[in-house]
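ok here's Nucleoside deaminase, seq below lol
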Amino acid sequence: MEKKNISTASKDRKPYLSEPISGNGERFHVGHDQVDPLATQPWNGFVPECTLENHDDCKYFPAQTANIIVDGVYDKIRIKSNKWIEMACEEAKMSIEEEGGPFGAVIVQIDDDTNEVIRYWRNHNQVTSIGDPTAHAEVMTIRSACASLGVFNLAKIEKEQAKLPQQGKTSHCVIFSSAEPCPMCFSAVSWANIEHLYFSATRYDSAVQGVGFSDEAIYNELSKPYHQRKMKVYQCSAPNSLDAFNTWKVIPHIDY
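and the structure came out like this:
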């Protein structure tokens, strides 16, 4: 098989913003039954074919059959699976086929009056496919939903303001991510004002040998004072640093 040059493959690719999919009047429901910590985690038995050039290396990357759960980190939030989180995980697997990273996300828009699913968006990681380090699954799905609806606040979508129709006066969105979001994506979800986040694989799953995403390292870095971090960070005393803020305070503006 001819090896693809990722940097060349991504040169002319544009970000993919997904189109909304109708909810067909389905009532939104996600059970919040806690998972028994002593129960065996279900596994679908999927074991992908190893296609590494050095086939001997395959023995170092056995199929993982359960999420890595660190004591204290996920207490009181572990619940059973649902169709939306499994859809996000399906999107993550599809992402690899699109030359993206192994992450997917789904955003569901829900009518506040009827609790019906109005529509949903599914998207995936596009970092390597378009050459954008910020094109994570959650970010691309948020961009898709906001572009479709014409809003930046996904917590309260007014009927009169949204570009797409909805029955009730207001609606809101929730997000499902195939894996625990990195700090950037947590921030993106927060800036979109989404109040409910569901994820499946943990940051420790993302960091295992052969997967190698360093979200946990970033979390650790953010917990340190600036002067102790690996990235050299400096706060500059610029004389005009407050000009934009002072202007913002005294002109009409849109809060977000």
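fwiw The chain has eight helices and six strands. kinda neat tbh
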